[in-house]
Each structure stands twice: as structure tokens, then as C-alpha cells.
Amino acid sequence: MRENKTDRRIQRTRRLLGDALLALIEEKGYAAITVQDILDRANLGRSTFYMHYRDKDDLLVSEFDHFKELFEHFESQPSAKGRHLQSSEYSPSLAFFRHAGGQHRLYKALMGKRGGETVHKLLYPYISDLMKTHLEKFIPDSKNSAVPREVAIHFFISSFLTLLTWWLDHDMPYTAERMDQIFQTLTLSGFNSALGIRLTHR
Amino acid sequence: MRENKTDRRIQRTRRLLGDALLALIEEKGYAAITVQDILDRANLGRSTFYMHYRDKDDLLVSEFDHFKELFEHFESQPSAKGRHLQSSEYSPSLAFFRHAGGQHRLYKALMGKRGGETVHKLLYPYISDLMKTHLEKFIPDSKNSAVPREVAIHFFISSFLTLLTWWLDHDMPYTAERMDQIFQTLTLSGFNSALGIRLTHR
DNA sequence: TAGATAATGAACATCATGTTCATTTTCAAT
DNA sequence: ATTGAAAATGAACATGATGTTCATTATCTA
Questions:
Q1: Cα separation of A113 and B121, whole Å?
Q2: Structure confidence by residue, pLDDT tens digits, A85-103
């Protein structure tokens, strides 16, 4: 079958472009990268790029999609490395920290400082959805909490992203487990007193 | 004296450019703005812009400097509106929330989502310095805290910026005092258990 | 009124973007 | 091995933003 081979050829080109992008993000930051930089790095012709992607952002988005696939695959391993998926104790934050530990390069390029705004605009809603689903279980409907529910959730998600980014930008000086524990220590009691609930703090 | 008049003329031009920039940031976000946009909005000639600023970023930085001047002036009013400067209870976060309330436009353009990365790179160190000075007083040297001091401080400052940004982007649905209280509720207990100290929570 | 300084806008060189197209490479099918 | 379809190529091009230059005009002080 031709299709398989052709696909492989296309995938190879795309991977070259994606790898070049990731490497360049680490070197000079996303904003400073030009399409020509990517082409030079990947040793590909100009029109090749536009054959696969609309523009620089489109390539970045496809790298982000790649990250999502990897993460979701990682998550779907029932208990591969992770005894972290036992229903009641499942914590999306720990899953992210763990996965990031194994996918240093991709995570650092996308979520580190040098990744830039575009990624953040994709990342926030993605993590937000995951966390919200998780949090919904714990948050009561109480109207008279000390802090508006919306603000507390935003705080919680932003704190996680802040710490993940910090960790990656500092070359992961602590284990994923320690980072998650730090995250929980910093946010959980505030989150609890804000909403008048108690999340289990492992 | 000639200087006064000339200065006034220059200042007028600069203000036109700055105002145009701020308005455009609110409309389309900093990244999407072109120098020509600013010129059209301000009704000025192309070369006039480059007579005053090196590039778009230079103009933005000067707006940021303007913000700092305003804030420092606001802070130096011994007790203008604020009984918020009584030494022991002084809180930089409340000062910011209050000042932002009175300078909605400038703050929203600079610190809101649409302000972009450049401002954040200026803003973080600025707020960081202010807060650190404030925090130093409370943080002991203890080496065996639950969370590395560096991480806790980063968390604290980032949380503040996150909430300030959220507040501005949502058109300040709460008073400055309420926002500061929210900020303290969300962060202080975590910060305390992280470092094993107790900040006074007004 | 004269002299100095600021503002102007047209023209220009440079650079990145995204498109087009004729040509070449690659590979599966025969 | 040959062929034909899909993919890769790179030169050429149009467009639009950037930042500079300069001769001219406007503005204000002395």
C-alpha cells in the first residue's frame, strides 16, 4: 500500500519541522523565531513548510496537539508506572508533574517561559478543563464562601501552571512528587478556607 | 524660558502616542499593534514616532515607567486616601489594588491579558522587589521549611499578579479591599504552612 | 521678526511573510 | 527496470511592516 509509505514520508517532514521548532524555542524563545530559522534548522525548502502548516503558530499548535496525545496516552496506561490513578486519590497535577518529568524537552519548550503566549492560551483551557472536572467533585454549591468560586478556581489552576513553569525553567530541581506536594501545600489550605471545604491532602 | 515650552510640546506628542498605544492595547492587544496603527490613531507622521521612541517596545516601556511614577507618587502621599501605610500593617498588594482602582485604564492596558509578555517581564521584577522587601521582614532563615523559600516567594508574587490581572480583565467586579482580602485568604495560609511562619492576616 | 527646535511625510532599503510554479525526488505498483 | 502519482524543492514574486533619511514646514522663544 502506497498510503503507508507516503504517510511516513509526510510524518518525517513534520517531525523535522516540529523538532526544529522545539530546539529553537529553547534557544531563543518562540517570539524571536522566524519561519526561515525553522527551515534552515530542519534543512527543508521554504515551500515545504507552507505545504504542511499555515504559519508558525499552526506548527506550534500541532506540537501542542502532540503533547496532548502523549499526555492522554500516558494517562490511559491503567497503572503503568503510576499507582497515581486510583480513583479517589487521582490528582491531575501529579499526573502532569510526572509526565513532564519524562517529557522534559517537549514540556520545557511548550510550557517554559520561552514558549510564549500562544501556548498559554491553549494550555490554560486544557488544564482548566481537566482540573475543573476533578474539582467539581469536591466543591459544594455553597453561595456564601469567603472567595467567589470562579476566583478560587482560577487561582488554583494558575498556581499549578506557575509552579509547573517554574519547575521546568529551573531544570526540575525536585522530583515530580515533591513538586506536587509543594503545590498542594501552597494552595490547598487557602483553597479550602476560600470555599469552606476540605480536599484530602495526601 | 524656551525649555519649558519645548518640553510641553514634546510631552504633548509623547502623550498622544502613549494614549494611542493604550487605547489600541485594549482594542486588539499589544502583539497585534503596528507602529502605523499608533500613528494613525495619534494623527502623527511616521518620522515623529521614531524621533521619540526606538520602537513599539520602547514606547511601552515608557508607559510602564509612567505607571511606576504614578504608583510611587501614590505611595508617597503619607495618608492621602490611604490609612494603608501604617508601618506594621502596610501591604503592597492592597496598595496596588487600590491604585489600580483609580487608574483603571492604564492598569488594564498594561497588566491585563492584552498587555502581553513585555509588560510582564517588567512588572514581575518590579512587584517582586516591592514584595520581597516587604516579606523579608517576616520570613525567618529556617532551612527546614516545607517548601523551598524561593518557590514560596515565587508562588506568592505570581498569585498576586494573577489575581490583579484577573480583576482588571473582568472590569473590577469587587472593591480593592475585597480583592486584597481574597488574595490573602487564598495565599496566606499556604504561604504560612510552607514556610512555617505566620503573617498577620488583617 | 529672526533663529532654533520640533514635526512632517515622502522616499527608500531591508526583512519576513505567504504564494506560485516549474522542476526534481521518492517510492509503490506493475 | 519502468512508470506514474504524490511530495519536496527553490527561485521568483507580491505584500506589508520596519526603521532611516532628508528637505520642507510649523511652532514658539527671545
A1: 10
A2: 444 567 899 999 999 999 9
| Angstrom distance (rounded) from CA A173 to CA A169 | 10
Q: Tell me, what's the pLDDT at B55?
A: 97
CATH superfamily, region B1-53? Homeodomain-like (1.10.10.60)
Interface test with B, best of A118, A155, A165, A192 (most B CBs within 10 A): A155
Helices and strands per DSSP (H, E), number in chain A: 9, 0
Inter-chain CB proximity B158 and A154 less than 8 Å: no
User: For A23-60, what is the HEC assignment?
Assistant: HHHHHHCHHHCCHHHHHHHHCCCHHHHHHHCCCHHHHH
Q: Tell me: the pLDDT tens digits for B124-162? A: 999 999 998 888 877 776 667 889 999 999 999 999 999
Q: Quick check: B16 CB within 7 A of strand C? A: no
Nearest to A135 by CA among A78, A80, A194, A76: A194
Could you check: is the Cβ of residue A134 within 7 Å of any atom of nucleic acid strand D?
A: no
Identify the closest residue of chain B to A170 by CA–CA distance: B151
| Residue ranges covered by each domain of chain B | 1-53, 56-195
Report pLDDT digits (tens) over B30-71: 999 999 999 999 999 899 999 999 999 999 999 999 999 999
